[in-house]
Amino acid sequence: MIRVKFSKEEFLVLMAGCLGVAMAFYVYHLGLTRVLTDQNAHLNFAKLTVESITPGISQLGFWPPLLHVLMIPVTMIDPLYRSGLAGFVVLVPFLALGAFFLYRTVFGVTNNATLGLAAGLLFLTNPYVLYYAVTPMMEVLFLANLAGVAYFMSAWLRGAKLKFLILSGIFVSLTTISRFEGLMLLPVCSLLIFLRMRQKKRPGREIEAALVMFLSVASFGMFGVMLYGWVFGGTPFAFTGGWWIRDPSSFPTQYNLFGSLQYLLHASSYMLGKPLVLVSLLSVIPLFLFSSRRIHLLAPLLIFFSPFLFITFTLFRGFPPLMVPELAPFDVFLNERYGLTWIGFAIVAPIFFIALVRQELMRTKMKAASSLIVGFLCLLLLAGNGMHFQQKVFVEQFREIRGNLGLDSPSQKEITKILAGEYDYGKILVTRTINDGLVTSLGIPLNNFIYEANDLVYRQTIEEPWFFARWVVMYNPNGEDEWEGLNEPIALKWGNSPLFERFYTLEGENSLRRLYKVNEGALASLAAAQGYDLASIPSLNKEKVMWNPRTIYAQILSSN
Amino acid sequence: MTILQAERQLVFFPQASFPIPISKPAAADYLFRPELESFKRAFYPETIFLALACVGFLGGSALLFYLIFGIPVLVFFSGLLACFYLGLMIFKLLVVQRGLARPFLQVSKSDLEALRKEDLPVYTILIPLYQEAKVIPQIMEAMGAIDYPKEKLDIIITLEEYDEETRMAIEKANPPAHFKILILPNVEPKTKPKALNVAFPYAKGEFLVIYDAEIIPDIDQLKKAYYAFQRHPEVACLQTRLDHYNQNQNLLTRLFNIEFNFYYDLFLPGLQQFGCPMPLSGHSTHFRKSALEDVGAWDPYNVAEDCDMGIALYRKGYRTEILDSQSKEEATTTVSSWMRQRSRWMKGFSQSSIVHMRHPLLFKDEIGGWKNFLAFFLTVPGTVLLNFCNLFYWILLVGWFTTHSVFIQDLFAGPIISISLISAIGGSSLFVYMNAVAAYRRKKYELVKYSLLFPLYWILLALATVRAVVQIFTSPHQWDKTVHGTHISKKV
Fold it and tell me: CA-CA-CA-CA torsion for A53, A57, A61, A62, nearest 10 degrees?
């Protein structure tokens, strides 16, 4: 008989791989790999970096870019892009990394492999951790890097080695470019460093030096984001949003701390399960009352709790919105996944509590039974997690996703279907921010789209679209969405415009969208009257796939 | 002390692998090597031919790229420089990564205590001085503090015959008997390596070290060096780790010290670990005298004779290690004195590059193959090229930000901008951080935050290098003397 021995870490990595593959199949079978607007957006950011009419890093967008960068090579494989499984390929290794770091963090603090294993398994068996590990979303990437911060910071607290300080800084940087919740780690980790060094009575200049060493690495990611925003968006704070941000005053959590906490905890109960949320919050009290190693417990707990603090703060500001069915506006989910981001705390707090229980038992006559009791408590946690998994995955089949406001709208799908049937050639002018699903689903090369990030090409096209865009998708100016009516750039410029309708024919319309195709006859008449070179007009020529925006007008006017 | 007048005498090194021509007038300029191995003449026909060949090759390649791919010539060169920057960045990172392991030769206290006084050989200390009256008391104190039997110390101070002020200061200090003052003949070139070469035949020691006027070495350095030489007979040269004693005097001295921390704790050790040739420091480097004889001592025409010596030793197959011992020197405290000193170093780097690359294929064979050739290229001429081009790139950057010029934008077409950004932002950030790491590891915590200002230092480096390149043509052998003793009137 061949016996194969795995270390705990290897076992967790293997489990992550197996669970990831199984979940990918299941989610794909349910048709949920690419249903949310954000999922399509992430895929497009990655692919457009290479396949846009203006490729390059300018297409990465102002969201945290790490996922997009990692997905670039994978989205080049078209089936992975269109199915959304590009996310699975990139994120399952991070699923494994997250479990690995969780194990190491817990083991480092408790010196107990069973507890470490339990922590890793609790992470791997959360239904939404697995869902977001097989779909193109940022959560698992963030959680894995966050676990890395916790591990290296804990290691530094124990050994004060410079390399751990630097590595924790690197992982903080990675979290800030995974999700903006990572920004909270800058003050949190700085505080931990300061407290620890004060505790060790280090001189002020050494504390200062350690903070400089840490912060200069940790803030590098955010510095990159701000530099990118300054270069491509005109402001270092481009990442805070643009015209596509809806008015925060409409959200009930704005300037309402209790409301913000309420919404977040409700969302967390969907993502983590109510029992785990309760147990984790209650565990903190005895940990701080009875444990002697407070800073070694405080560090990972505070690190894992930092996303909770960040989201509470953003909800208090009013954006981004978070919706759960039982609270206003009722019966809908939106961004409920934010409740997943503090799963590290929800796992580690009860695990540390179990470690405390074990420690106390070891001092008593129940020393021999301590392992049994620890094992039993871990199994209890895992069983609870298992029930949550079963409910969400098999019974409800990811109800939170299927009932989500962030799904691609039926009106967009309808226009996509019409366009897919009628598309012949040429560029499609579209506001990509609200039409990512159309771009992903259409099945044509992405360099056939002209959208906001195409800089000069877009600006030229939106001024005189009939020369450059054979197709135009815009918000229906007579439609129901007030916000889109006030903000969608194409509709603002050309909605119900006689000039526009002279050169375009309406090919499809519903309550939110209109699809136009260029009127070749009208454009040809214009060209004849003005002496334009028809062969140079991109919207009329299949061969004219790319052009230089600085010279295209000269070419069009060349026979003049 | 003893005062000697150096005589013009023929010098013949039995160990040298090339003979000094007997017919040559008695080495009037104290050059003991073939002229081709020195910078006595800057540009030989070979050098000019090689330069023209390189220009031709590059120009031809640019033309070819234009004809075949339609890439404009300027864009080609822009791309080439971008690749150079990226390659240099990767090389330095690999070197530093090796250097992080702290591969110094360690000598413990117990090792030193085991040394017997009678076993210690005569050790020569060469101290070339010129206009150093201010620091004479300091150097006397530093030499007096050295833990080595005084009867086995062979200290030779060289002086120009017209440097009365320094001579009087020495006499006033009344050094002990084991000090020798060697008065140099008034001949060109007027450089430190010339002074060393004059003194070299008078050196009695089996081992030799150079100390500059303002140096304060660790008191056990000679014993450590001797021990290391004994334990490692294959080692011909020991480089020590330099430091400054006035590092906190002002921002410039802080940045200078940060540079030293990086260079002597990370970069040189990394080069040594890779088995690559190392440019040495101008003082506190310990030699076996026989190795120096073999290479023909120093090049009196090279104003960075230390860099040249490191390469020359390597070419002859000698090994250099880094000794875990420190010598502290004075950091230049004003921008003007720093600029003069650094221009001299960069001029010396340029001279060393020209000398050693005169016959590139022979050099490649002697240096140990293409890997070491590339390492030399990136370390010595690469440093000059990098600093020189930096100024040009910063001007372009400012120009683009102010004018958004399409011409500048077109120079960085396609992948060139990506490569350039990686080097500029990624590379710069990494090396600023490495400077901080080096300062932190030396426990110079107060300097860590100043590391973030290091890009200002790069600006100075660029300016100094441009000045150096001009001086290669206008005054190739001029030695810009560094003024010492400015720290004495300041509290540090």
Answer: -160
ipTM entry: 0.86
- Cα angle A304-A187-A336, degrees, rounded to a multiple of 5: 40
Residue with tokens 């400015």, as numbered in its chain: B486
Put simply, whether A220 touches B (Cβ < 8 Å) is: yes
pLDDT score at A289: 85
CB-based burial, A346-370: b 16+ in 10 Å, e otherwise: bbbbbbbbbbbbbbebeeeeeeeeb
- Say if A60 is an interface residue toward chain B (CB within 8 Å): no
Identify the closest residue of chain A to B434 by CA–CA distance.
A213
Q: Which of B183, B22, B40, B72 is nearest to B406 (CA)?
A: B72
A496: left (phi over 0), alpha (psi -120 to 50) or beta: left
- Contact check, Cβ <8 Å, A216/B433: yes
Cβ-defined contact of B425 to A216 (cutoff 8 Å): no
d(CA A157, CA B125): 47
d(CA A540, CA A534): 7
- Mean pLDDT of successive 10-residue stretches along chain A, which has 560 residues: 75 95 96 93 95 91 94 95 95 97 95 94 96 97 98 93 96 96 96 94 96 96 91 85 68 89 94 94 89 85 96 90 86 91 96 92 80 90 94 93 87 92 94 92 93 92 95 92 88 93 94 94 92 90 88 81
Contact yes or no for B385/B84 (Cβ under 8 A): yes
Q: List, edge to edge, every strand of the sheet that includes A513-518.
A: A449-450, A427-429, A469-475, A513-518, A504-509
What percentage of residues in chain B have a pLDDT greater than 90?
66
Residue B446: which residues within 8 A CB-CB, separation 6 or more? A205, A209, B248
Burial of A443 by CB count in 10 Å (0-12 exposed, 13-18 middle, 19+ buried)? exposed
- Per-residue burial over B214-239, b = 16 or more CB atoms within 10 Å of its CB, e = otherwise: bbbbbebbbbbbbbbbeeeeebbbbb
Q: Please check whether residue A474 is in contact with residue A496, taking contact to mean a CB–CB distance below 8 angstroms.
A: no
Q: What is the pLDDT of residue A359?
A: 87
Please check whether residue A488 is in contact with residue A434, taking contact to mean a CB–CB distance below 8 angstroms.
yes
Q: Residue B234 — pLDDT band, cuts 50, 70, 90?
A: very high
* Distance of alpha carbon A52 from alpha carbon A68, whole angstroms: 14
A187 with A215: CB under 8 angstroms? no
Q: Which of B429, B440, B446 faces A220 most closely, judged by CB atoms?
A: B429
**Measuring CA to CA, which residue among B447, B32, B407, B470 is closest to residue B252?**
B447
Q: Which two tokens stand for residue B429?
A: 């950030």
User: What would the pLDDT profile of A192-229 be if each residue is shown by its tens digit?
Assistant: 999 999 999 999 999 999 999 999 999 999 999 998 99
Instruction: Show residues of chain A in contact with B412, CB under 8 Å.
Output: none
For chain B, what is the total number of helices (H) and then of strands (E)? 20, 9
Please state, in angstroms and as integers, the Cα–Cα distance from residue A170 to each residue in A175, A312, B152, following that order.
9, 25, 53
**Binary contact (A213, B445; C-beta < 8 A):** no
Measured between alpha carbons, how far is A24 from A12 in angstroms, rounded to an integer?
18
Contact: A213, B452; criterion CB under 8 Å: no
- The predicted-structure confidence for B341-363, as pLDDT tens digits, reads as follows 999 999 999 999 999 998 899 99
How far is A76 from chain B, CA to nearest CA, in Å? 18
Q: Strand B216-217 and strand B319-329: pairing?
A: antiparallel
Evaluate whether A438 touches A412 at the Cβ level (below 8 Å): yes
* pLDDT for residue B218 is more than 60: yes
Please say whether the beta carbons of A211 and A190 come within 8 A.
yes
Contact between A81 and A43 under an 8 Å Cβ cutoff? The reply is yes
Q: For chain A, what are the domain ranges?
A: 243-407, 410-556
pLDDT at B6: 62
Rg of chain A over all Cα atoms, to the nearest angstrom: 27
